[in-house]
Amino acid sequence: MTVTEGAANGVSGSTDGSRPGEGMPGRHVPVSTHRFQLEPDFTLEDAEKRLGYLVQLGVTDVYLSPVLQASEGSTHGYDVTDHRHVAAGLGGDDAFRRLTAAARSAGLGVVVDVVPNHMTTPTPLTANRPLWALLREGRESPWALWFDVDWDAQDGRILMPVLGDDLESVLASGEIELSHLDGQTVVRYYDHVFPVAAGTERLPLPELLDRQHYRLASWTTADDELNYRRFFDVTSLIAVRVEEPAVFEATHAKLVGFAQAGELQGLRIDHPDGLADPQGYLERLADATGGIWVVVEKILEGDEQLPADWATDGTTGYDAMLRVGGLFVDPDGEAPLTALSTELLGQSQDLEQIVVESKRWVVEVMLSTEVSRLVRLVRRALPEVDAQAARHVVESLLVGLERYRVYLRPGSPAGEADAVELGHALTRGRGAWDRPLDDAVVERVMTLALGRDRGEDAQAADEFVVRFQQTCGPAMAKAIEDTAYYRFVRLTGLNEVGGDPGRVGIPTSEFHQFATGLAQRWPRTMTTLSTHDTKRSEDVRARLFVLSERPDEWARWVRKARELAADHRSDELDDLTEYFLWQTLVGAWPITAERLDGYALKAIRESKLRTRWTAPDEAYEKAVADLVAAMTGDPAIAVHVEAWHSATARESRAAVLGQKLVQLTMPGVPDVYQGNDIVDLSLVDPDNRRAVDYAERSERLARLDDGGRATDLHDEKLLVTSRALRVRRALSDAFVGEGTSHVALDAGSEHVVAFGRGQGDRVEVVTLATRLAGRLADSGGWGDAEVTLPQGDWRDVLSDRRVDGGRVPLATVLPDKGLPVALLVRVGSAADLEATDGAVAEEVDA
Prior knowledge:
The protein is α/β, with parallel strands linked by helices. Helix content is 43%, strand content 15%. The strands form seven sheets. An eight-stranded parallel beta sheet has the order 18-17-16-7-4-3-20-19. Strands 21-22-23-26-24-25 form a six-stranded antiparallel beta sheet. α10 links the parallel β16 (266-269) and β17 (293-296). Mean pLDDT is 94; it is low at 1-17 and 837-846.
């Protein structure tokens, strides 16, 4: 079952209680979700066949990656080409309707990922009908409203950087020719085709190209000259102006129609920080859909809060992932791991400095064209300001800002918090370069950024406010997630989307404070541990967290590993990359050479230290590939890795099961990313989009439900996942209903996180998870430590153990020979009865 507004009596979201659709009779609210990554090899029909497994697992809603028409063969769906149709390669509109009908019959809701920011520039371009028309007709085209193009930067044309060389050279070599397609004259360059403007068809080729509404250029010009806004640094993704009502309606009509017809019940919004007006977009979306459940892919930094006036139920869960994972990281490991990193690299690493250096490179090189566009807007609004001085200020703000953006709306006064944040950004950014800033220019640009000075061109001033904020997100993401996190190697399991590698471990008190805040303000936000964007799966991170518990043992292990690989180490290889790969090997073991080689290549190119996507160093890349081959092919190294896992099995098991149970039962709507119902050792995409063996999972779950014992960690994780999801489904009000609460329980040990879930003061479910299990074992176990349970009769649905409320020894509820986690429900409750219907595994030995 899933909770509805009728059952839950509303949402306790922001402090004023207002949320889209609140109080709407029958409003569907997910209790849990399961993310499917759709692609040609796993279509909507394939997803439909797996709905029965989701029901058995305990999930209430199927959560789909983008479904609208994308590039042919797309394996992710974010490269949208046509908003009018469900992707043909996934089965089309009919397959989507069949899936939603089957889901409805099974009692499941449907949530879909929405891509509002951009479309792709496909090959061939004819697949994107609006863009094709725009390139043919130019800035006077009715389609010009759709796309975010700075026409003046290219004298009224759109730069298309697709050539392998400059235009003159390509023309001279005869690589460009005129051709015909569907009765139209077109320009053809290998697989690329471009339209020809009316009246220019008979011109000589060089003159014809000069008369088009686009300019063909070398791919190398993109970072400096591109004049359409793109998604981050991806030139093949062109921004769409959904802030325009007509564009919003056209790009959202299909999904809104599905929502209005009751064929989908929730939406996940991709990258809201790229929108011109996130608040306005969400309000328009809520109005169009009747206020269905919506979460946004918003990364919150530090103590940053999601804007309370957004029409959303919360984020997609990176904020929760940071806190949950941190519970299983030992802060005592920080100093020895720092010392080890310094020893292996021959120098210390300063994370803050690495971030600054990464942001400088991204802002100066990768986002040069975006910064140039901002400077042109400054000059239009403030023509007396020197362009270079203005550029220095803009670059300093982008480097210094430690959030993905602030939230200013042109015409609305800037809040004091935004002013303070930009002031801090300027202070930090000043120190990023050895160059002075012109204080007079600083003052003018700052007032412009805050919307307090519109200068001589109000339109340009307002546009600067919007575009500056849209540029902050790419500067953060590309510099930190996609550069710095491939350079900082103290404990790579912390280098995660929304993560904070500077903090080693989070105390239980901080987690409880965070969870209580969610229950009070965002009770229906999404929580997650793995996504299609995470750098490592939850279980790879859990294994790496163990390094913080066993830093001395790890130091000895990695020194020995380096000795074993000495004969395979080229002089080209750097110590940083080698240490990065040893951690990867241990986290993802067993791993094939093909998988690790693909990951290593992506990692070293993203780090941009020795090689880059746009400037590969073949000798260096070969040295890395040779090491990867040895790591995955040398029997002595394999024995060494297996020895590590045997020695740390207790710690890994507790982290894998503990963080999963905490995520599934804390405040919010938990998502289980495909494959992560059992142990999944995937790395960054595309590795985390590999096919999932659902047949194996179904067989395992059926065996556990028939009373079979858990035989490995896969079984144990599936047991924890299924029982927690079923408890949520049976007691949905306790998790996402009105007045849902998170109650921290008194536990007499730092090695357990203990909390209750229910409504108000009434606790219906208790979660207990062992943390830092290695140190616990070193100290002799639980000893006489006790946890205070709410009064009543309780049963652990994982072990079938019964206990009375009050003071209970931790050794009783978390015995050394059993699971390191427990999930207690009140005897006789709906959750107890559902769990009894499907037999649970007996006590599982450690």
